[in-house]
From TrEMBL:
Keywords, ordered alphabetically: ATP-binding, Nucleotide-binding, Transport
All residue ranges annotated as the ABC transporter domain in the record: 7-237
Family: Belongs to the ABC transporter superfamily.
PANTHER family from the UniProt entry: ABC TRANSPORTER, ABC TRANSPORTER, ATP-BINDING PROTEIN
SMART domains in the cross-refs: AAA (SM00382)
InterPro entries for this protein: AAA+_ATPase (IPR003593), ABC_transporter-like_ATP-bd (IPR003439), P-loop_NTPase (IPR027417)
SUPFAM superfamilies documented for this protein: P-loop containing nucleoside triphosphate hydrolases
Single GO MF annotation: ATP hydrolysis activity
Superkingdom of this protein's organism: Bacteria
Name this protein carries in UniProt: ABC transporter-related protein
Amino acid sequence: MEAENVIDIQNLRHRYKTHQALGGVTFSVQRQSIHGFVGPNGAGKTTTLKILATLLRPQMGSVGVFGHDIFADRKAVRRRIGFMPDHFSMYRQMTVFEYLDFFGAAYGIGLKERDKIIGDVLALTDMAGRKDDLINGLSRGMQQRVSLARVLVHDPDLLLLDEPASGLDPRARIELMEILGELRRLGKTIFISSHILSELATLCDHVTILDRGEVKYTGTMRGLTTTGDDLTMNYQLTLRAEHPATGEALSRLPGVSRVTPPLPNEPRYTVTFDRAQISPNVILRTVLDAGGEVVSFTEDVKHLNQAFMDLTEPGVRT
Ligand SMILES: Nc1ncnc2c1ncn2[C@@H]1O[C@H](COP(=O)(O)OP(=O)(O)OP(=O)(O)O)[C@@H](O)[C@H]1O
């Protein structure tokens, strides 16, 4: 049986001469999740990714990938990971096909099989029409896709992507996110770093926030944005027109601790409740029974950027 977690990091520490880059990092990544790894400049993201990619030896702590020790079993780990660094490597004078063929050969894939695999990864990254183009002449977004295609050539189970969306325009970024969503559907686990939490919000199901070498949050994306302790919830209720009877009915409900009155000319209420005692469905039914005409009823999530600011400290670590 394979380990439940694809990545398991326990108390990882890493120091560059006098500088402590990672100060006891612990988190895990579940199979077939898209796990965001977010932190400001100098947080230690690239250091962690390089360790996971077996390019940097961990100094203290334990790092397991698919149940293998990252250092003792590094050959077994390398076969199952695909690492995309934060910069595009050389080989710009090659065509897209030559580049992928080169890496396929380096992985020991035979000629015939290579042609098929390269065809598949070019189709997946939507680069089939560019296979004879020189890498040098491609846009940054296209180079990122080639870089991703390269990582896929040996069909790894875990993708380690260091800031793949940096420098991309909004369209290229959205297209990249769509490709990553497709890769997850194909059964891959994706660990992806970024400076920007909101950039990963719709893509990732889990996130770890790192600041100055320390984990500030690790868990579900949803857990990050629900307010306070996990049982207290806030919902925004917007009515077509002000309707005092609805507000009164909600205030009387057991489990509802607060109903903020609507602003003048804006019939929007914030309903705070304990979800151990009452469900959003019961609240909505109460509103309808009271005669309120509902325009929307949605969870009021703490804004992602605010969550990020709350968890990380000001200033850049260099
Ligand atoms: N080779 C190195 N020698 C000395 N210090 C280093 C080295 N590599 C990284 N550092 C330092 O370690 C800390 C963590 O760097 P790292 O590159 O892992 O952070 P990061 O989160 O990836 O940052 P960024 O988002 O800016 O790329 C930083 O303070 C950085 O200056």
